[in-house]
Amino acid sequence: MRYSALQILRNALTGDRDWRPVWREPVPKPAYDVIVIGGGGHGLATAWYLARNHGLTNVAVLERGALGMGNVGRNTTIVRANYLLPGNSEFYSHALKLWEGLEQDLNYNVMMSQRGLVNLFHSDGQRDAFARRGNQIRLQGDDADLLTREEVRAHAPFLNFDDLRFPIYGGLLQRRAGTARHDAVAWGFARAADLRGVDLIQNCEVTGFRIEAGRVRGVDTTRGYIAAPKIGMAVAGRSSQVGAMAGLRLPIESHVLQAFVTEGLKPLIPGVISFGMGHFYISQSDKGGLVFGGDLDFYNSYAARGNLPMVEHVMEAGMALMPMIGNARVLRSWGGIMDMTSDGSPIIDRTPVDGLFFNGGWCYGGFKATPGSGWCFAHLIATGAPHPAAAKLRLDRFATGRVLDEEGTGAQHNLH
Amino acid sequence: MSRLASGGLIDRARRIPFAFDGRRLTAHPGDTLASALMANGVRLIGRSFKYHRPRGLIAAGSEEPNALVTVGAGAEATPNTRATGIEPYPGLAVFSQNRWPSLGFDLMAINDRLAPLLGAGFYYKTFMWPARSWERVYEPLIRRAAGLGALSGARDPGHDEKAFAFADVLVIGAGPAGLMAALTAGRAGARVLLADEDFRMGGRLNVERLEIDGAPAVAWAAAAVAELAALPNVRLMPRTTVTGVYDGHTYGALERVGRHLADPPEGLPRDAFWRIVAPRAILAAGAIERPIAFPDNDRPGVMLAGAVRAYVNRWAASPGATAVFTNNDDGWRTATDLAAAGVPVTALIDARPGVAPPDGPWRTFTGAVVTGTRGIRALRAVTVRDAHGERSVAAECLAVSGGWNPTLHLSCHLGARPVWDAAIAAFTPAPDAAPGLSAVGAARGAFSTRAALAQGAAAAAEALAALGIAAADQAVPYAEDAATTITPLWRVARTTGRAWLDFQNDVTTKDVALAAQENFRSVEHMKRYTTLGMATDQGKTGGVAGLAVLAELTGRSVAETGVTTFRPPFTPVPIAALGAGGAGRGFAPHRDTPTQAPIAARRAPLVEAGLWRRPSYFPAHGETTWREACDREVAMVRGAVGVCDVSTLGKIDVQGEGAATFLDHVYANTMSTLPVGRVRYGLMLREDGFVMDDGTVARVGPTQFFITTTTAAAGQVMAHLDFAAQCLWPGLDVAFVSQTDHWAQIAVAGPKARDLLAPLVATPIDDAALAYMGCAAADIAGVPGRIYRISFSGERAYEVAVPARWGAGLFDLLVERARPLGGGPYGMEALNVLRIEKGLLTHAELHGRTTADDLGLGRMVASAKDCIGKTASRRPGLSGPERQQLVGLRARDASGRLAGGAHILEPGAKAAAANDQGYLTSVCWSPTLGRDIALAFLRDGRARTGETLRAVCRLRGLDTAVDVVAPPFLDPDGGRLRG
Amino acid sequence: MRIACPLCGPRDLREFTYRGAAKLLDRPAADAGPEAFDDYLHIRENFAGPNPELWHHEHGCRAWLRVVRDTRTHEFLATELAHEGSR
What we know:
The complex is a heterotrimer. Chain B is α+β, with helices and mostly antiparallel strands. In chain B, helix 4 (176-187) runs parallel beside helix 8, helix 9 (509-517) crosses helix 10 and helix 9 packs across helix 11 (543-553). Chain C contains one helix and six strands, in the order βββαβββ. Chain C has one helix at 34-42; strands at residues 2-5, 9-12, 17-21, 50-56, 64-70, 76-81. A four-stranded antiparallel β-sheet of chain C has the order 3-4-5-6, with no helix packed on it. Chain C has a two-stranded antiparallel sheet with strand order 1-2.
């Protein structure tokens, strides 16, 4: 069934009788051409692009819980392509272009809203660093503009231009950046993949890999053994645990990142505003909640929740940057588990096990990557060769030293 | 709706004038805004989020989803405030919200007519055509319609605070269970914190017609509170909501300190956010009643039954003629209490067949349900269906009880899942849900007063035992001990029309049904698809009913269906409270150098350098731009002498027999061979082989070194040294301490530096006594200090160090003495130009992604010894022509402008990532060379000296021809340094 | 979260800085080769459960602590001075 305004009208007249399930509840088959482990954003996107771009529809997505309930369902919904380093730059650029046509491609309104993102800077040195980044973004073919302090004021007059501890010198604006409705992204990919015949299998946890002579044959699951010659892992947050079952040792630590939403408010924040000196970023959802977050809690965690020091630090940064938000109330806080790599950049690559492919290490860049990740991972699984946009996201870059360290903080997983 | 003639815990002798949407009304001390509105006959208080349906009060506590108002106006306007939590004070002005033009006549109510089009998730299925019209057309319309109240956009003028508190036992909730727990622990001498949301402690004892030990429960509560208040080891925290449970027995709590005062004393915070540490906590938060879904159950006047009798009993606020609709025995109390207070009760409707409700002056229906309501902005009648058919019953208020949900939210904050208890048809806290936390009373599903008292006492006794505090057994007072009798009813079957589950977000049973039909069957999927439970009450009212309806529709039990996750905060917390202290300059400390006073006296503009504030330049008479000052200061240093505070450098004193070996480990180059009295440039690598920092190492004695770090990396280096000494080489005899703040350090640079300094230093500083890269202890202007012959400018230079308290005096003295020599102070701008001309590095170049080889310092990584980072620095990706290497760039024409962050392209190359050759890190106008120059990283740069390339900053519209040179730009042989 | 510093007693999380896995105590020998350093720097067991790790009491006594903490519950199971720990 195609979604459209007309379809809504028709159903309104018939008491919503005709809406069909967004996805089937298939029973796992004994074997597939491809298994994707992980029914989050990246796994679902991979399944969709395997079907759409490579004609592979004998595909199963195995999800241990409910679809889309990992990080795709608990992020702050920001989409951008404003990276500094070649490797990341072309990858996120590719992803942003996919975002721009995603609704039409999926026939699902993911509410991609390109209302811009401003990164504030607070010194001459930071201005130069952001200019370098902005020039890189432009060289990559994406948009970036350097705003003066007065241009930032025109964009967001409520920022603290009077006595901010780190005065605002200006900002780097990417107009094509913005936000999307995170759940809708998961559901849109799921529905589209399901319509092409992909089996989305919920409540199906992988409990082991069967590997013979260095080649993967299938997976044991809580719903039985399922065979496939090609298996892709897209389980960011649990990569180390799932990888360990296949003997992978990964450059990853799991960390908790908290986020917050306020009660609904009438619109007042334009696009996304990022305050790097305060490790604070904020946007406003279509429903009116201010959605914001900050840094990791910094300690390894698999508990999707954080502690007060970071909560308070984020709120203090918010009060510093935009003292108008004091009377907004925090409605809910939550935590997501991030695959933190030791250089802060993701991995889409083959593994030492033939037929087993790895997608993970998304740190906190996973949501914006979703369509690009799915596209490139599907390409890698289908063709065996890396997609050019993801060619530098290699697993061996740590050994060779060709790391992608956007923050320049070195081989310490929690500092990226 | 009116005030009853008698009764209630209000002070009728005093009147508090307040205004609702400009209407002047009167409250009494003891009222909440909600009770005052009810007593004043105000029913319509708000509009729902989506359909803009008229809404009135449902509840009396913090779960209220409908009656949200904006308190105050202008910058102080506080939107989305629950009327049930506001204490009226004289002059209080509140406003309804999410309506236009007025609460009574809201044009957005058109949405209600369009409801068939606006079902759950409709927006995912449309607004996709034409492409790119989402941001331009649809989204702005949706955004404007969405949201509840509005922020003013002006700076929040309020004052809030944060604090820590420690206790043996934290008791959360001051109802019968909490009071009994606090009494038990308090009498035993434990340090007790008793926190309650309400301004009056007592919980349901204040709102029910109950007796304890034969006396009115209200009196027992008051006596208990009085006893606790008199105990020195007990702290009562009324108006305090425990909002979150965190690791390490830490609890977050919000105390409303000054919000209820018309004229708070100067300095009193509005709110205080507490972090409470308590090894034992007792959750006695009570229970929240739940609604039943039936058509049009959202009209103003349809309320929760327990809330209705609370308004009558505690506030003497009459809801008007009331019908009661219940599926459990507790609902009956509302009928009897109202009748006792003289409020007309028109009907008692019990969904259960065969039960025997109490008799009273009302019509009793059993096995009966409410199938509809009438009235637009206020309820007029309800339709009752029983075995005999349907009939209309007049009612201005319908008191609904669908049973009670234990207020167990806090028990889930550390990840525990609640457990379904079929006997009471409710979720209860999992045992050991959070370390040290035990739930008691209604919060644990024990709804009788006697059980609450008994469990409170028992939990406190258990806590005392765990804490090792001896306690006498407490007699549990006598009180009602009624069993919980309930037959679950979540929605009334065989009806048409919308039946609400989430009142604020307008989620009806039809939305849940659509979610199930579309296979959003997981409770999390249903929540997210319908937004049920995502309103400001976070599902406190309709959440369990919603998932129970989902369970029915999908043929599962409630237990199988499960609940969504409860997360902090329990009730919404102002950002201002959680972020107290962050506004303005409070966000981070700032650090001033010891020379701050003389620098300020010379009117130098200050710039941020990390947490430090440093002088940008020292304006001279007649100068109008920073560039004029900077150029003059550079020429002054190059031609005569300049004085500059460099105290912000990190300084670490390293001592011990193992100090030299230790420094060999942490520096790439060798320090153990450094003679006493000499200084060496040091390069520090991270273990991953990239450069961490640079600085100087001075050997001031055989076993004592004094090292400096860059300003930016001082803290990082200190932690790194701690790590190296304690974790990697714990056997070494080495100790070190940060002396950054102990020493004022002042650079004296320029050809006349020695002329300036020599008369002030007691010992000789000629080239024989103190050659370039020498150091010595010295008496400087009568103060014992040190002198280092090092240079960050390329000129003959010294850095003199004295204890910090002498810094300002020394700076003044040096500047004064420099004048006759043609010298003076210089600031950060000139310092930067001087070092760029000399090709020296800062964190613009040492940005964490550069290697020693990139910087042309590869040979500094000593081959004869190991050091941190050595092995990893030899990875293939860290050196060689594939990398971008440090070079100098000169604008080809004197008029050519360069900019930091520009990228480097070859002549004629298209601006594309594939053609990128590198980027400029540090740029300045060089008064010495008469053109713009830059330090840059250029692919295979060292091999490209002499090439002409382009520095392109498309962000600033620059495309400038540059020549590649090998830094430094000046004095490559260092003749000026050595004198 | 609170950490029982062996020198200072139980202190708030705010005083501490987290570094990472306790394997960082076992720096490879100078001649161990690039693979050993690659493993040391990058590869993490990343336990979902008791995790040996390093904390720095940076805003306290500046001791480095070797801690075992359950990453599923954040419960601290053992805390000792890094250089006194069993290696």
